[in-house]
Amino acid sequence: MSSQATAGEGLDVLVVGAGFGGLYMLHKARTLGLRALAVDAAPGVGGTWYHNRYPGARVDVQSLEYSYSFSEELQQAWHWNERYAARPELLRYANHVADRFALRDRIRLETRLVAARWDEALARWQATLRAADGSEQCLAARFMVMASGPLSTPYMPAFPGLERFKGRVLHTAAWPHEDQGAVDFSGQRVGVIGTGSSGVQVIPQIAKQARRLTVFQRTPAYVVPAHNGPLDAEWERRVKADYAGFRARSRAMRTGFGSEHPPHMKSALAASAEEREARFEARWRIGGFAFLGTFYDLMIDERANALAAEFVRGKIRSTVRDPEVAARLSPTYPIGCKRLCVDSAGYYETFNLPQVELVDVSGGGRPIEFITERGVVAGGREHELDALVLATGFDAVTGTLMRLPLQGRGGLRIQDKWAGGPLNYLGLGTAGFPNLFHVAGAGSTAAFTSVILSIEHHVDWIGDCITWLDTQGHKSIEAEEDAEAAWMAHMLELARHTVFLGCESWYLGANIPGKPRVFMALVGGFPAYAEQCAEVAANGYAGFRLR
Ligand code: NA7
Q1: Which of 105, 244, 313, 423 is least buried, going by the fewest C-beta atoms within 10 A?
Q2: How buried is 138 (Cβ within 10 angstroms: 0-12 exposed, 13-18 middle, 19+ buried)?
Q3: pLDDT under 70: residue ranges of the chain
Q4: Against a cut of 0.85, is the pTM above it?
Q5: Is the C-beta atom of 339 inside 6 A of ligand 1?
Q6: Angle ∠(75,81,84) on CA atoms, nearest 5
Q7: Residue 178 Cα, ligand 1 centroid: separation in angstroms?
Q8: Between the CA of residue 90 and those of 51, 77, 395, what are the distances in Å?
């Protein structure tokens, strides 16, 4: 291991992650003339889109909105093939960005941040990086930006006996890179555990190949159609004619996307049954998240929400031929409480196929008991399988940071600081961790927006902040504990007025046994959040301690 780095030989910014967050942070830092380096454990850039290689992986926000806006040349030059891009296209885009902005020479792939400690005397982060060959290097950086992704640590439930299973076990978020490009399930009996976004996407694809597909469902998802297809050339032309205006309209939306179909400003409760049905149907035909904007109060009034939920259950009943299967696929918690699943492949129709079986493993029903050499035992029955796909999600938002030996001021460990859940001010900084910034992490609206819009907002704010600190001659910035506590109270207060506390979601950490149940995202909408962040900056970074 090299010796401890000293102040003189360090970086200005160490960026952790080379997904969309890390790539833009690196670009930003370089345009500001800062010495920056990004590291990523993966062998390629693209983050989420590098790892989630399972068949059917696709973005749930329209491509024209799930893309960078920072470069007019880029947004004009890039052509999306599909309305909702699939993983390969998204990965090509990430690689194109890395090349176009000449970022590769400052990205170290297959390199993991294995430790980082704030050095108070030097006002630097001392970071240890480990390369794939095991060699380690210490680097000092004035600032560290965690662009490690809110959904980057896959969750593998500890099913008893899993290690005994003789077939292949795959996780959707750690899908293997096969020589031939794709895992072949032809002729196999395949089990899928999990019916969130990943399960909903992978299930119809596996059903096309497998001899038999058994879906183990603990909680059914609300699945809305994407109506995906080739990108409409006329829409692309219109957007590109005024991309800046399109982006500005997106930023004015609470979700940062969907400006072409803003929420209808009427209560679902004020509409007649006929009007409601017609409006839900019209939104269903548009596809995607637009459905949740059929009426303005779907996410804040349980009774309004219940009407939307019943409409979707009606769609399930009219699509799935076996009424018992349809009933099992029908959720009862508030719609949108867990992230809505956007379907491009006929998810509900898949359950009409003779080779597909839906097994209820809900907590109240008959959970998965254990795994044998041959398959999964649930409900007292052994389901024999050749391959088992875990679409069991992520230790979301905090999981990646909580696995890092990250030590702030006075040796404060992030694991202790966040033992009761993440603490953050504006979603950007944490008390006790000077000069450490978060991108698309806890405490921001990232989870409820087009994440690239949030990334750009965070990175721009961080870039401005570093520039300001340097001009003012400050060596460090750190969230104040009071400001942080007030921010967390604000987050909870906002969430209380929504339906988001009405189910067990990854937003709440409720998908991970033992994880503190804390609502980790800000539901106040992007415009209000961006305004608060701008105000803090305009007021000399009020709520942050400067040194
Ligand atoms: P999700 O949405 O967290 O879904 C994980 C699924 O796995 C969900 O259906 C879980 O059921 C199920 N699960 C987890 N543990 C178990 C056990 N022990 N037994 C049975 N079933 C289990 O992850 P995704 O990867 O689909 O999507 C994450 C985000 O990525 C998504 O929201 C988009 O933003 C993109 P549960 O619902 O917890 O009962």
Answers
A1: 105
A2: middle
A3: 1-9, 178-181, 364-365
A4: yes
A5: yes
A6: 90
A7: 25
A8: 12, 15, 23
